[in-house]
Amino acid sequence: MNLKQKVMSGLAWSAAGRLLAQLFTWCVTIVVIRLLSPEDYGLMALAAVFVGFLALLNEMGLGAAIVQRKDIELSTLRSLFGLVLLVSLLLYLALFFSAHLVADFYNEPRLVLLLRVVALGFLINIFALIPRAQLQRDMQFRQIAIVDFSSAISGSIVTLVLAWMGLGVWALAWGMLTIRLISTVGFNIANPFFCLPSTNFKGMKSFITFGSYVTAGGIVWYISSNSDALIVGKNLGKDLLGFYSVGLMLATLPMDKVSGIIKQVAFPAFSNIQNDMELFHRHFLKAVRVMSFVSIPVLWGISCVSPEIIQVFLGKQWLQAVLPMQIIAIVIPLRMISGIMSTAVFGVGRADISFYFSVIHSTFLPAAFFIGAQWGLLGVSLAWLFVFPLVFTLQMLLTIRVLKIETLSIIKAFSIPLFSGIIMYASVFVLRSFNVFTLNILQMLLLILGGALTYTITTLIFNRNGLHEVMNLLKR
C-alpha cells in the first residue's frame, strides 16, 4: 500500500471510528449536561486544566519523536519508557502533595481529592504511549480507530450511569479515567509492548531535543489555550466557568474530533514526504482547502443556531452558555487551519517552529482574556473573536517562511469558503428576523436548512473545484 492509499485508508478508518463514537457520545453528553449542574462542569474544568498540563510534561514530546523516527531499536524504546515512567511518577507525587494549594487558590476544598483522582489518568496513559506512537508511525489507523471507539463508548456509558446515580462531578472524573484505562488496554492488545523500562538514558539526546521542543511548545500552547478557564474560574466563579466551559465544549466539539483525525493521519504522512517539497506543498494546500470547505459552514452554522441548540438540547437553565458558544465558534475554523500548519512544520522536523507558534499564542491570548474578564463572559468571548485572527495571521506568515510556500496560495485555499460562509451567516441572520416558528426545534431546523441551502448555492457558483475535491476525497 503506497502513501496515498495509506492516507486515504487512515482518514476513512479514523473518520468512521470517530463518527460512530460521536453519534453515541454526543447523545450521552446532552443527557449528562441536563443531569449535572454548571458548578459540576466548572469544578471539572479547573481540575482538567491542571491535570492536562502535567500530562503534557509526563509524555515529554517523546510520542511525537517516535512517530517522526522511522527505525528505533528495542533498547531505545525501553529507555524512553523508563524516562517517561520516572518523570510521570515524580509529577504525580508533586500534584498529590500540592493539590491543597490549588484548592486554596480557588477557595474550593473539593478540588483536593478531585485532582488526585483525575491525575491517575496520566499515570495509566504512560503504558499506552509507545504502542500508540508505533501504530501511528506505521499508519495502522484501523487499530487506532477501534481502540479509540471502544474507549469513548465505555467512558460515555460510565459517565452517564454515574450521573444518573447523582454522583455529580465524579461522574465526569470516573468517565475520564475509564477512557484512559480502556485505551491503554486496547493499545497494548493491538500492539503489545511488555518490555521492562530501562534507566540507561545514553543515546537519548536527539529524542530529548526533539521532544523538548514539542513539550515546550505544548506547555506554552496549553497555558495560552487554557488560560481562559483559569481566569474565568478565578475572576467570575465556578458557575460562570461551568457555563463558559459547556459553551466552549459545544463550539469546539467538531474541531476536537476532526482535527484529531487530520493530525493523526497528516503527521506521519507529512513526515514521509518531507524530502519532496513540491509534493509536500500540494498535500498541505489540499489539507487547508478541505478543512476550510468543511469547517467554515459547520462551525459558523453552529454559531448561527446556538440559541436554538442550547434551548432544544440542554434547556433554558443553560442559556448563559449561548454567548460563548456563539462567538467562539466563529474563530474555530481558523484554529483548525492553525492545527494543520503546526502539523506541517512538525512533519518537516521543525518542532522549534511549532514552539514559536505557541509563544505567539501565549503572548496575546492570556492578556486578552484577562482584560476581557472585566466584562464577564462577553468580554472573554470577544477576546477570542478579536485577538485570535491576529495570532493566526502571525502563524501563517511564519509557516510561509518555513515551508517556502507562496502567501497567495494559502490565502486562496481558505478565502472562497470564507466568502461563502459570510453569505451563509448573513442569510441565516435575515431569516431569523422573520421569526417564522415559535417552537425552537422548528426554528432551528428552518435556520439550518436555510444556511445549508445558501452555502451550497454559493459553493456551486464560486467554488465548484473545492466541492469536487471534497467529493472525490469521500469517494475514495
Automatic annotation (TrEMBL):
<protein>
    <submittedName>
        <fullName>Lipopolysaccharide biosynthesis protein</fullName>
    </submittedName>
</protein>
<feature type="transmembrane region" description="Helical">
    <location>
        <begin position="383"/>
        <end position="403"/>
    </location>
</feature>
<feature type="transmembrane region" description="Helical">
    <location>
        <begin position="410"/>
        <end position="431"/>
    </location>
</feature>
<feature type="transmembrane region" description="Helical">
    <location>
        <begin position="143"/>
        <end position="165"/>
    </location>
</feature>
<dbReference type="Pfam" id="PF13440">
    <property type="entry name" value="Polysacc_synt_3"/>
</dbReference>
<feature type="transmembrane region" description="Helical">
    <location>
        <begin position="111"/>
        <end position="131"/>
    </location>
</feature>
<feature type="transmembrane region" description="Helical">
    <location>
        <begin position="206"/>
        <end position="224"/>
    </location>
</feature>
<feature type="transmembrane region" description="Helical">
    <location>
        <begin position="437"/>
        <end position="462"/>
    </location>
</feature>
<dbReference type="GO" id="GO:0005886">
    <property type="term" value="C:plasma membrane"/>
</dbReference>
<feature type="transmembrane region" description="Helical">
    <location>
        <begin position="12"/>
        <end position="36"/>
    </location>
</feature>
<feature type="transmembrane region" description="Helical">
    <location>
        <begin position="79"/>
        <end position="99"/>
    </location>
</feature>
<feature type="transmembrane region" description="Helical">
    <location>
        <begin position="326"/>
        <end position="348"/>
    </location>
</feature>
<feature type="transmembrane region" description="Helical">
    <location>
        <begin position="290"/>
        <end position="314"/>
    </location>
</feature>
<feature type="transmembrane region" description="Helical">
    <location>
        <begin position="171"/>
        <end position="194"/>
    </location>
</feature>
<comment type="similarity">
    <text>Belongs to the polysaccharide synthase family.</text>
</comment>
<feature type="transmembrane region" description="Helical">
    <location>
        <begin position="355"/>
        <end position="377"/>
    </location>
</feature>
<keyword id="KW-1003">Cell membrane</keyword>
<keyword id="KW-0472">Membrane</keyword>
<keyword id="KW-1133">Transmembrane helix</keyword>
<keyword id="KW-0812">Transmembrane</keyword>
<dbReference type="InterPro" id="IPR050833">
    <property type="entry name" value="Poly_Biosynth_Transport"/>
</dbReference>
<feature type="transmembrane region" description="Helical">
    <location>
        <begin position="236"/>
        <end position="253"/>
    </location>
</feature>
<feature type="transmembrane region" description="Helical">
    <location>
        <begin position="42"/>
        <end position="67"/>
    </location>
</feature>
